[in-house]
Every structure is written in C-alpha cells, then in structure tokens.
Amino acid sequence: MGDMLAAGGWLMLPIALCSVIGLAIVIERAWMLRTERVAPSSLTAQMTQLARSAPLTAADRQALEAHCPLGKVWAEVVACRDAAIDVRRERIEEAGRRAAHEMTRYLNTLGTIAAVTPLLGLLGTVAGMIHIFSAMTEAGLGDAQALAGGIGQALVTTAAGLCVAIPALVAYRYFIGRVEQQGLMLEQMASRLIEAQRRTLAR
C-alpha cells in the first residue's frame, strides 16, 4: 500500500481520504437504514395505543420523535388528529419529507465521492503524462526510470480513483433505492395509524 501511494504521488492522498470517508458513510447508512431502525417492532406494536391516545404532550412527542423516522411521522399523525383534512395531510406529508431527508443524510457526500474520485484519477493521469514529457525533454528517451515513474503515476492514480468510485456509486444507488423503499413503508404505516384512529373514533 505504501509503495502504491508513493507511486501515485500526492493525488493518492485525497483519493485515499475519499475511500475512508466513503467506507464510513456506507457502514453508517447500512446501520441506520435497517428496517428495525427506521420502524422498530417495539414502536409498531404501539399503534393501537397511539390510535386511542389523546394529543401528545410536548415531552411525549419529543420522546416519540427521537425514537426513529417512523416516530416522527406518527407523532405528527397523533398531534394533528383533530385538524382539518387539508391541514392534516399537509402536516403529515411535511413530517414524511423530514423523515426522508434524515434518511438521505450523507448520501450527497457519497455521491460526490463517486463523481470526484475518477476525476482525481484522471488528474493523476494528466500529471503522470506531464512528468513523462518533462523527463523526455530533459533526458530524452534514454532515462527509463523517469519515464517509468510518470507511467506508474498515471496508471496507479487512474486505477485507484476507479476502485474508489465504482463501489461508492453502487452503494449510493443502493441507498437511494433503500430510502425510497423505507419512505414508502413510512407512508403505509402512517395510513395504517390514520385508519386505526378512524376505527377508534367510530366506536
């Protein structure tokens, strides 16, 4: 690894930094976007209780919203139970957007890493070619070591950039799809709570 970093030159440092940040984001999002984290079974089991409950106190709402994304949506459903239909729909949709925004945290950074690292590799390629032509100008074609150094820099940075960008792009697309799935699940769970409230009020 040390030899690869040395061969690629200083441009390997930002590529390596991008790889570390990207890996950290992948691990964090994989943990946070689990179904049990977004809509834990301990909370979904309380749906009937929430459907029967009166408007939440500030403390109860804060505790419910801190629980998970589903808690944020359900807290709004319970809080605006007696509001007009249009107002209620707007507030619940806003809560859903906030929950979706929370689930997409750091994904823009991951997408930026997927886009930037190939460009860093391309910049390394250009720098390597400049090094080659400089060596040819100064020493001619006889200095094989100087030429090899430029070629090595060009190839290593390009390969390193692609090795970071490809997994980052795959992870980014996967997590975007995962957020869409979880957002749909939150919408369905909100509808279930609303229906449970209607059944409770009809009794």
From TrEMBL:
Domain MotA/TolQ/ExbB proton channel: 85-187
Main location: membrane
InterPro entries: ExbB/TolQ_transport (IPR050790), MotA_ExbB_proton_chnl (IPR002898)
Regions crossing the membrane: 6-27, 106-134, 154-175
Subcellular location, record wording: Cell membrane; Membrane
Keyword Transmembrane in record: yes
Domain of life: Bacteria
Keywords, in A-Z order: Cell membrane, Membrane, Protein transport, Transmembrane, Transmembrane helix, Transport
Pfam families: MotA_ExbB
Lipoprotein is among the record's keywords: no
Bilayer disposition of the protein: Multi-pass membrane protein
Family label: Belongs to the exbB/tolQ family.
Annotated protein name in UniProt: MotA/TolQ/ExbB proton channel family protein
Native source organism of the sequence: Salinisphaera aquimarina
